[in-house]
Amino acid sequence: MKKILLLGSGELGKEFVISAKRLGCYVVACDSYAGAPAMQVADESCVFSMLDEAPLRAAIAQHKPDLIVPEIEAIRTEVLLEVEKEGFEVIPSARAANLTMNRDRIRDVAMGLGVRTAKFNYAESADALLAQANAIGFPVVIKPVMSSSGKGQSVAKTAADIQASWDYACAGMRGDRKKVIVEEFINFEFEITLLTIRQRKGPTLFCEPIGHVQERGDYQYSWQPQPMLPSYLKAAQDMADKVTADLGGAGLFGVEFFVTKDEVIFSELSPRPHDTGMVTMISQNLSEFDLHARAILGLPIANIVCTEGASAVVLATQDGSNPTYTGVAEALSEPDVDVRIFGKPTTRPYRRMAVALAKNANALARARAAAAKISVVV
Predict the structure, then answer these.
(1) What Å distances lie between residue 9 and 81, 247, 293, CA to CA?
(2) Which CATH code is given to the segment(s) 3-90?
(3) Environment class of residue 324 by beta-carbon count within 10 Å: exposed (0-12), middle (13-18) or buried (19+)?
(4) How many helices (DSSP H) and strands (DSSP E) are in the chain?
(5) Which residues are catalytically annotated?
(6) pTM above 0.85, yes or no
(7) Does domain 190-377 have CATH number 3.30.470.20?
């Protein structure tokens, strides 16, 4: 039985714990607050900030895990680099966790490998942001170098928007780095997440591309498969293979791309299951969480079968605690529809609280209709 120390216990972590438990693992779930979703299904839990070096080290020393599995980016990854040298295994690797904790580092890696990215630069003040935006050309997309679920992301259409974008990015930052990435606005036809699985033994595998739509920088609904030209899909797979091979290790990566009329452009990468990939809980025979668990445990992945599927998020509208849900029965009355309530103990405006899933014909429309029937009550 493998002991896993899970760093971050949100809804993605919860599904991963379920997959890992089915394969006989013992999981210790960690997060900054008690009662986080993954803690509800794990064997043990720890509450501390993973940006705090001392308790992070203490948790690793206490539990002596076989595998350290990050689920979030806000981690003192320098500690992971050090404990890896001491013999602990970090998934997919401490280097991957360290580089992808900040958007600037992984973007630099991709560019260094010759992967096509949007034009970008960095800024550590509103004045520097304005200068870089002028150099790239408006409109520009502005994001904190470290955040999650699109927090702090905005589009500045003119110089008059820069101060507001800077303030919004600072408010959405995680960690202690006041730094943003500013990049050219890509007029894409659609964007995809390409779930990429590096196995301990065997070739790198790819799921069918997942299309998705964002609002406020956060995904709202996704679908699989996203139709695209075979040559463009091959280009995305080649870039994903190149970047994940450089990062090393075993596990599932969520690699995001912009797809324009003329080309495929690398956007971002997460060395872990991706929020848009929640659709795989209904669209695939093995969800992204099953695939991550098998890959890190060195278990075979015989095949990945995809059917038409879609996901749509259910958001909270106000601050509160101990939420309840209405409309679930109505949502589940439709065939081939499922609902996953995450079990978060508190709410805030736009916080993701559940997801509606649908498969087969018109999956996207039915997933969105199901999500619209569900309300979060506090």
Answers:
(1) 21, 23, 15
(2) 3.40.50.20
(3) exposed
(4) 12, 22
(5) 148, 150, 256, 268, 275-276, 352
(6) yes
(7) yes
